[in-house]
Amino acid sequence: xxxxxxxxxxxxxxxxxxxxxxxxxxxxxxxxxxxxxxxxxxxxxxxxxxxxxxxxxxxxxxxxxxxxxxxxxxxxxxxxxxxxxxxxxxxxxxxxxxxxxxxxxxxxxxxxxxxxxxxxxxxxxxxxxxxxxxxxxxxxxxxxxxxxxxxxxxxxxxxxxxxxxxxxxxxxxxxxxxxxxxxxxxxxxxxxxxxxxxxxxxxxxxxxxxxxxxxxxxxxxxxxxxxxxxxxxxxxxxxxxxxxxxxxxxxxxxxxxxxxxx
Length: 262
Hints:
mainly alpha
Protein backbone atom coordinates (compact mmCIF):
# COMPACT_ATOMS: atom_id res chain seq x y z
CA UNK A 1 0.00 0.00 0.00
CA UNK A 2 2.84 2.40 0.82
CA UNK A 3 4.34 1.82 -2.64
CA UNK A 4 1.02 2.52 -4.35
CA UNK A 5 0.61 5.67 -2.26
CA UNK A 6 4.09 6.87 -3.25
CA UNK A 7 3.39 6.01 -6.86
CA UNK A 8 0.12 7.93 -6.79
CA UNK A 9 1.82 10.89 -5.17
CA UNK A 10 4.56 10.80 -7.80
CA UNK A 11 2.08 10.64 -10.67
CA UNK A 12 -0.02 13.43 -9.17
CA UNK A 13 3.03 15.66 -8.75
CA UNK A 14 4.20 14.83 -12.27
CA UNK A 15 0.81 15.59 -13.77
CA UNK A 16 0.46 18.79 -11.77
CA UNK A 17 3.92 19.95 -12.80
CA UNK A 18 3.19 19.18 -16.45
CA UNK A 19 -0.16 20.93 -16.27
CA UNK A 20 1.46 23.98 -14.67
CA UNK A 21 3.92 24.19 -17.56
CA UNK A 22 1.13 23.95 -20.13
CA UNK A 23 -0.95 26.72 -18.53
CA UNK A 24 -0.47 30.10 -20.15
CA UNK A 25 -0.01 32.95 -17.66
CA UNK A 26 -2.38 35.27 -19.53
CA UNK A 27 -5.13 32.63 -19.40
CA UNK A 28 -4.56 32.09 -15.68
CA UNK A 29 -4.77 35.85 -15.09
CA UNK A 30 -8.08 36.09 -16.95
CA UNK A 31 -9.37 33.05 -15.05
CA UNK A 32 -8.52 34.69 -11.71
CA UNK A 33 -10.26 37.92 -12.76
CA UNK A 34 -13.35 36.04 -13.95
CA UNK A 35 -13.56 34.09 -10.68
CA UNK A 36 -13.23 37.30 -8.65
CA UNK A 37 -15.94 39.00 -10.70
CA UNK A 38 -18.19 35.95 -10.31
CA UNK A 39 -17.75 35.97 -6.52
CA UNK A 40 -18.35 39.72 -6.47
CA UNK A 41 -21.65 39.29 -8.33
CA UNK A 42 -22.75 36.52 -5.97
CA UNK A 43 -21.89 38.68 -2.97
CA UNK A 44 -23.84 41.58 -4.44
CA UNK A 45 -26.87 39.35 -4.95
CA UNK A 46 -26.75 38.14 -1.33
CA UNK A 47 -26.23 41.69 -0.05
CA UNK A 48 -29.19 42.86 -2.11
CA UNK A 49 -31.39 40.27 -0.40
CA UNK A 50 -30.23 41.46 3.03
CA UNK A 51 -30.91 45.11 2.19
CA UNK A 52 -34.27 44.17 0.66
CA UNK A 53 -35.21 42.39 3.91
CA UNK A 54 -34.45 45.56 5.85
CA UNK A 55 -36.58 47.57 3.43
CA UNK A 56 -39.46 45.12 3.86
CA UNK A 57 -39.20 45.46 7.64
CA UNK A 58 -39.36 49.22 7.28
CA UNK A 59 -42.62 48.85 5.39
CA UNK A 60 -44.01 46.42 7.95
CA UNK A 61 -43.02 48.74 10.78
CA UNK A 62 -44.91 51.55 9.08
CA UNK A 63 -48.04 49.42 8.83
CA UNK A 64 -47.63 48.22 12.42
CA UNK A 65 -47.29 51.81 13.63
CA UNK A 66 -50.51 52.67 11.83
CA UNK A 67 -52.23 49.70 13.49
CA UNK A 68 -50.98 50.79 16.92
CA UNK A 69 -52.15 54.36 16.37
CA UNK A 70 -55.54 53.28 15.11
CA UNK A 71 -56.07 50.81 17.98
CA UNK A 72 -55.04 53.43 20.54
CA UNK A 73 -57.52 55.97 19.16
CA UNK A 74 -60.32 53.41 18.99
CA UNK A 75 -59.61 52.31 22.55
CA UNK A 76 -59.79 55.92 23.73
CA UNK A 77 -63.08 56.44 21.92
CA UNK A 78 -64.53 53.28 23.50
CA UNK A 79 -63.46 54.45 26.95
CA UNK A 80 -65.08 57.85 26.38
CA UNK A 81 -68.28 56.17 25.21
CA UNK A 82 -68.28 53.98 28.31
CA UNK A 83 -67.83 57.04 30.55
CA UNK A 84 -70.62 58.85 28.76
CA UNK A 85 -72.94 55.84 29.27
CA UNK A 86 -71.93 55.67 32.91
CA UNK A 87 -72.71 59.36 33.38
CA UNK A 88 -76.03 58.92 31.66
CA UNK A 89 -76.89 55.96 33.90
CA UNK A 90 -76.93 53.66 30.90
CA UNK A 91 -75.61 50.44 32.43
CA UNK A 92 -76.03 48.44 29.22
CA UNK A 93 -74.26 51.08 27.15
CA UNK A 94 -71.51 51.28 29.74
CA UNK A 95 -71.02 47.52 29.66
CA UNK A 96 -71.07 47.52 25.86
CA UNK A 97 -68.41 50.20 25.44
CA UNK A 98 -66.33 48.83 28.29
CA UNK A 99 -66.12 45.44 26.60
CA UNK A 100 -65.36 47.13 23.26
CA UNK A 101 -62.56 49.11 24.92
CA UNK A 102 -61.16 45.91 26.42
CA UNK A 103 -61.20 44.17 23.01
CA UNK A 104 -59.53 47.12 21.33
CA UNK A 105 -56.98 47.29 24.12
CA UNK A 106 -56.07 43.66 23.46
CA UNK A 107 -55.58 44.49 19.77
CA UNK A 108 -53.50 47.50 20.77
CA UNK A 109 -51.29 45.31 22.95
CA UNK A 110 -50.81 42.82 20.11
CA UNK A 111 -49.98 45.63 17.69
CA UNK A 112 -47.45 47.09 20.13
CA UNK A 113 -45.88 43.65 20.66
CA UNK A 114 -45.67 43.19 16.90
CA UNK A 115 -44.15 46.64 16.61
CA UNK A 116 -41.53 45.78 19.25
CA UNK A 117 -40.66 42.55 17.44
CA UNK A 118 -40.37 44.39 14.13
CA UNK A 119 -38.07 46.96 15.73
CA UNK A 120 -35.77 44.23 16.98
CA UNK A 121 -35.76 42.57 13.57
CA UNK A 122 -35.18 45.92 11.91
CA UNK A 123 -32.20 46.64 14.17
CA UNK A 124 -30.68 43.27 13.28
CA UNK A 125 -31.47 43.74 9.58
CA UNK A 126 -29.91 47.21 9.62
CA UNK A 127 -26.70 45.81 11.11
CA UNK A 128 -26.67 42.99 8.57
CA UNK A 129 -27.36 45.39 5.72
CA UNK A 130 -24.51 47.65 6.81
CA UNK A 131 -22.17 44.65 7.00
CA UNK A 132 -23.36 43.45 3.59
CA UNK A 133 -22.76 46.87 2.01
CA UNK A 134 -19.34 47.06 3.63
CA UNK A 135 -18.50 43.57 2.36
CA UNK A 136 -19.60 44.58 -1.15
CA UNK A 137 -17.46 47.71 -0.99
CA UNK A 138 -14.43 45.81 0.25
CA UNK A 139 -14.85 43.10 -2.36
CA UNK A 140 -15.31 45.72 -5.09
CA UNK A 141 -12.04 47.26 -3.93
CA UNK A 142 -10.35 43.86 -4.16
CA UNK A 143 -11.73 43.36 -7.67
CA UNK A 144 -10.40 46.79 -8.65
CA UNK A 145 -7.02 45.87 -7.17
CA UNK A 146 -7.08 42.61 -9.11
CA UNK A 147 -7.91 44.49 -12.30
CA UNK A 148 -4.97 46.83 -11.69
CA UNK A 149 -2.77 43.86 -10.84
CA UNK A 150 -3.97 42.19 -14.03
CA UNK A 151 -2.73 45.13 -16.09
CA UNK A 152 0.58 45.06 -14.21
CA UNK A 153 0.99 41.31 -14.69
CA UNK A 154 0.09 41.49 -18.37
CA UNK A 155 2.64 44.27 -18.78
CA UNK A 156 5.26 42.19 -16.98
CA UNK A 157 4.33 39.20 -19.13
CA UNK A 158 4.76 41.21 -22.33
CA UNK A 159 8.10 42.50 -21.05
CA UNK A 160 9.16 38.91 -20.26
CA UNK A 161 8.13 37.76 -23.75
CA UNK A 162 10.04 40.63 -25.32
CA UNK A 163 13.13 39.84 -23.24
CA UNK A 164 12.87 36.18 -24.22
CA UNK A 165 12.69 37.22 -27.87
CA UNK A 166 15.74 39.45 -27.41
CA UNK A 167 17.59 36.61 -25.68
CA UNK A 168 16.79 34.29 -28.57
CA UNK A 169 18.04 36.88 -31.05
CA UNK A 170 21.25 37.35 -29.05
CA UNK A 171 21.74 33.57 -28.87
CA UNK A 172 21.19 33.34 -32.63
CA UNK A 173 23.76 36.07 -33.20
CA UNK A 174 26.20 34.27 -30.91
CA UNK A 175 25.69 31.06 -32.86
CA UNK A 176 26.31 32.93 -36.10
CA UNK A 177 29.51 34.43 -34.72
CA UNK A 178 30.66 30.97 -33.67
CA UNK A 179 30.36 29.78 -37.29
CA UNK A 180 33.84 29.82 -38.83
CA UNK A 181 33.55 31.18 -42.36
CA UNK A 182 36.77 31.42 -44.44
CA UNK A 183 38.26 34.89 -44.04
CA UNK A 184 40.09 36.84 -46.77
CA UNK A 185 43.31 36.64 -44.79
CA UNK A 186 43.15 32.86 -44.77
CA UNK A 187 42.34 32.78 -48.48
CA UNK A 188 45.27 35.09 -49.23
CA UNK A 189 47.52 32.90 -47.12
CA UNK A 190 46.46 29.82 -49.10
CA UNK A 191 47.10 31.59 -52.41
CA UNK A 192 50.54 32.78 -51.32
CA UNK A 193 51.35 29.28 -50.16
CA UNK A 194 50.39 27.79 -53.53
CA UNK A 195 52.33 30.51 -55.35
CA UNK A 196 55.43 29.86 -53.25
CA UNK A 197 55.15 26.12 -53.84
CA UNK A 198 54.81 26.68 -57.61
CA UNK A 199 57.86 28.97 -57.68
CA UNK A 200 59.84 26.49 -55.61
CA UNK A 201 58.94 23.67 -57.98
CA UNK A 202 59.98 25.84 -60.96
CA UNK A 203 63.27 26.69 -59.28
CA UNK A 204 63.94 23.06 -58.52
CA UNK A 205 63.00 22.10 -62.04
CA UNK A 206 65.53 24.60 -63.48
CA UNK A 207 68.24 23.14 -61.28
CA UNK A 208 67.80 19.65 -62.78
CA UNK A 209 69.08 18.31 -66.13
CA UNK A 210 65.52 17.97 -67.31
CA UNK A 211 64.97 21.63 -66.51
CA UNK A 212 68.06 22.72 -68.44
CA UNK A 213 67.01 20.66 -71.41
CA UNK A 214 63.57 22.21 -71.33
CA UNK A 215 65.10 25.71 -71.18
CA UNK A 216 67.32 24.88 -74.15
CA UNK A 217 64.42 23.66 -76.21
CA UNK A 218 62.53 26.84 -75.50
CA UNK A 219 65.54 28.92 -76.61
CA UNK A 220 65.89 26.93 -79.86
CA UNK A 221 62.22 27.37 -80.59
CA UNK A 222 62.53 31.13 -80.10
CA UNK A 223 65.54 31.38 -82.46
CA UNK A 224 63.79 29.29 -85.08
CA UNK A 225 60.71 31.46 -84.83
CA UNK A 226 62.85 34.60 -85.34
CA UNK A 227 64.51 33.05 -88.37
CA UNK A 228 61.18 32.14 -89.89
CA UNK A 229 59.97 35.73 -89.42
CA UNK A 230 63.08 37.11 -91.18
CA UNK A 231 62.58 34.67 -94.02
CA UNK A 232 58.99 35.81 -94.52
CA UNK A 233 60.05 39.44 -94.45
CA UNK A 234 62.68 38.75 -97.12
CA UNK A 235 60.08 37.15 -99.38
CA UNK A 236 57.93 40.21 -98.95
CA UNK A 237 60.87 42.49 -99.74
CA UNK A 238 60.69 44.12 -96.35
CA UNK A 239 64.32 43.47 -95.38
CA UNK A 240 67.44 43.97 -97.50
CA UNK A 241 69.57 41.77 -95.36
CA UNK A 242 67.25 38.83 -95.22
CA UNK A 243 69.92 36.32 -96.23
CA UNK A 244 72.35 37.51 -93.65
CA UNK A 245 69.64 37.46 -91.01
CA UNK A 246 68.72 33.92 -91.93
CA UNK A 247 72.34 32.92 -91.81
CA UNK A 248 72.72 34.59 -88.46
CA UNK A 249 69.66 32.85 -87.08
CA UNK A 250 70.92 29.56 -88.46
CA UNK A 251 74.28 30.19 -86.87
CA UNK A 252 72.62 30.98 -83.61
CA UNK A 253 70.69 27.74 -83.77
CA UNK A 254 73.94 25.91 -84.58
CA UNK A 255 75.64 27.59 -81.63
CA UNK A 256 72.81 26.63 -79.31
CA UNK A 257 72.80 23.09 -80.71
CA UNK A 258 76.57 22.89 -80.30
CA UNK A 259 76.32 24.15 -76.77
CA UNK A 260 73.62 21.61 -76.04
CA UNK A 261 75.72 18.84 -77.57
CA UNK A 262 78.78 19.81 -75.60
